[in-house]
Amino acid sequence: MTLNETFRAKVWTQESTGAWHFVTLPANLSERIRTLTMGQLKPFGSFRVNARTGLSRWETSLFKDTKREVFVLPVKADVRRKEKIKPGDTIEVSISFEF
C-alpha cells in the first residue's frame, strides 16, 4: 500500500547547529503515519520517504519528534537552493511511501 500526502509547513532549522532544515508534519498526518507504520520504524523512529516541493524531488527519511509527537522531514540543501527556500518560508510538500 502507498501513502501519498500533501501539506503546507514552515521551514525551520535545528537550534543546536542551524545546519539542518526541516518541516514539521501536521499532527493529524503524523498520527495517521504512526498508526500505519506500527512496528516498521527504524532507529530514531525513522523511515524512508520520497518528497517533493516545487519542481524538486528527493529521497529522505521522516524522523519522529518524541517531544511533540509528530514527524519531521529534512529539506536538503540542494533542494533549498533550487527552490530558493529559506528558514521561515512556508512551503507545500508532498510525501509518499509504501508500507
Can you put this structure into words, describing what you see?
By secondary structure, this protein is an alpha+beta fold. The chain has a single domain (2-98), classed as Elongation Factor Tu (Ef-tu), domain 3, CATH 2.40.30. It has helices spanning 27-36, 77-83; strands spanning 2-13, 21-24, 47-53, 56-65, 70-74, 90-98. The chain has a 6-stranded antiparallel beta barrel with strand order 1-2-5-4-3-6. A hairpin with a 2-residue loop joins strand 3 and strand 4 (56-65). It is globular and about 35 Å long. It starts with a strand and ends with a strand.
Brief sketch in words of this structure:
By secondary structure, this protein is an alpha+beta fold. The chain is 17% helix and 47% strand.
Counted by DSSP, the helix tally is: 2
Biggest sheet: strands, sense, closure?
6 strands, antiparallel, barrel
Structural class: alpha+beta
CATH class: Mainly Beta
